[in-house]
Every structure is written in structure tokens, then in C-alpha cells.
TrEMBL record:
Gene3D superfamilies: alpha/beta hydrolase (3.40.50.1820)
Cited InterPro entries: AB_hydrolase_fold (IPR029058), Thioesterase (IPR001031)
The Thioesterase domain, residue ranges: 128-365
Protein name: Thioesterase domain-containing protein
Pfam families per the UniProt record, alphabetical: Thioesterase
Amino acid sequence: MRLEPDMAAALLAKTAPPWTTADLVPVLTPIWRRAFGPKGHAPDAHVMRMSVGIGRVTRFLDGVQDAIGVRVPATALMRLGTIERLAVAIARNDWPPPSAPILLRDGVGSEALYVIAAGTGLVLELCDLAQAIPFPGPIWALQLPGLDGETTPLADIGAMAAHHIAAIRDQHSSALPAGPVHLIGYSFGGLVCVEMARLLGDRIGLLGLIDTTCYETYWPRTEWLRVAGLRTLRRMGELRGMRPRPALRHLAGRGRAMAQHIGRRFKAKAGDADFTRSVYYVDGLDPRLQAVRNASIIAFERHDPAPIDAPVTLFKSRLGDRHGCDPARLWRRLAGRLDVVMVEGTHITMLRKPHVEGLAAAIGARLDNQIRCQIR
């Protein structure tokens, strides 16, 4: 008799380990499909190739724990990737060790590309991009420590940069790779890339930032005023056609938002940032992922980016980030030389199809140009 998934989970929960892979697959499969949606129904579904976000990952981890009482480490889920391999790891209680570098795509040659994720620490949002970049070398992702609860998350961008460089050295027996180190950072990850480049010096190849800005306190004054003016105009436009009473309520709410915007500008640079009031704060995540994201928000609010005497390539979304300033205006003041590449989409959709193909092609072209310049 074939058991329904919930019946299988209930029966399994009453059965003491050790479980077999055959016991676990019928329990994990419906949880996987519910959490990851239609993409999880494909026979060859792999979590690194489904373009899923941190919320879906949390739902899956919660579902497995509710069903069988096992908390799957987030980075282990990414390294294992499939239901079958996950079932084997649970049955054997044998997990891949936490590690910063994750191979997104294999390649050949002495040059490698390292991509750094946003403040979530997970690189799932960069998987589609990595697969599409026309680059012959291997593409690695660098994740933040603490995602599996193995250590306290870092709350300083300089410390994150040093951690990532140490991880690269560990890959190559305490030395850096033979060729230049190419770095691409998305959003918050771009700030980490810049500090890595500062530490690497002349070993840096392409230094690419994808829609990277900094906290409002550190925006150029003219840019902060420009954004404040645009927000005010948008709010005034929203009042058109409203009746007086709803308009007053709307105006009061928007007034509070503007007060917060002004407060963020003049906020003290203290380390005890109230991350729960940040526009980037999201609750309800896996506790370990939540801790990493919260620490990243604190690091972001503390970090005042310094000028760097190096060429920077900025891949800028055409429609931008509603929470951020114009990154080109920021990096023109900070970069030794700035190349701005416009990419279709918003801060979020530029990493999704169809826009991600254009972003990947632009990155590939800059990498190719970098390699050609080195040969000359």
C-alpha cells in the first residue's frame, strides 16, 4: 500500500532513527514540492538551479523539521541540492561541513570569478547569473559565516572581506590563485567586494558591483536631497484624486516615512544599530539565516565606504532600487575610475529572466576585455 505523504511523515516521526533513504524520500518529496512550487516538481530539480529565495528555503527547512524533527543546515541543502542526496545525508547524519566557497559552475584555466551575495549571505539569487556568464574559468560563490549556526555572524564589512580572502587562500593551500582574482558583488555584497579589492591590491582583476549603494547616512548630501525631493513629489502625486479625510491619513503616514528618512540621515554611527527598524529588515526566517541577515544590516549601517584607487565597473539597473540612491553618483566620488553599464530591470528583477541574460552578457564582455588587456 502506498502511503499519502502526511501519513508517511507521521509514521516516520514515530519510528526511531536510523532511517533509510527509502524511508525519507516519500516524506521529503511533498515538503520539497510545497516549499519550492512548480520548479520543485521537475525530476532533476536542484535547489541551486531553481532560482528560489530565502523565504522558500526557510519554508522547506521548517517543513522538514516539523515532519521528522531534523533541522537541515542551510548550506548543506545548497551543497546537496536534491531530495535523494538530502535523504542520504539525513539517514547517515552526515552533513557537508560549512564552507564559504561554493562552486556554482566549473571551468578551466587559472582565472576564477568569485561572486558575493547580498546581505542574506546565501547565494541562491546569483545562481542563474553564474550559469549564464560567458566565462571559461570556474565561478565560485562566497557565503557569509554563521549560516549554519557554526559561528557568530560577522557585523563588520571589513571582517567579512578578510574572511572571504582567507577562504580563497584555503582553496589554494594558503596562497592566492595563480591568475587575477575577479570579483562581482550584488547589492550589499558589492561593499564587501570593494574591501576585498583593497586587501588584494594588484591581484584584483575585474571589480564589478551590481547595483551597490551604501546606507543613507553616508550618501553624498546632494544625492540625499535629490532622493528626498523625488520621494516628496511621489507622495504629493499619490494625493491626487483622494478625498480630504483619506488624503490626510495618507499624508500623515507618508510624513512619518519622511521623518524616518531624515532620521536615518542624521543617525549616530553607533554600533548598536536598531536593525528591526531598517527598511531591509525581514523577520520570520530560519533562525540562523535571520541572525546572518540581522548582522549584515548592522554592518551595512556602520559602513562608510572609503575611496578606492582602482577601476570599478558598476552594473546599474535601469529602474533602480526604491530604497537606494543612484549608485553611479556614489561611486563616481569613490572609484579611481568608473565604468557604468546599464542593465534592464529593477534592483530585484535584473537578476531574473529575461534581464539576467543581459547582465550576464555584460559581465562576460568585461571579463573578456580584462583578460585581453592582461595578455597585452
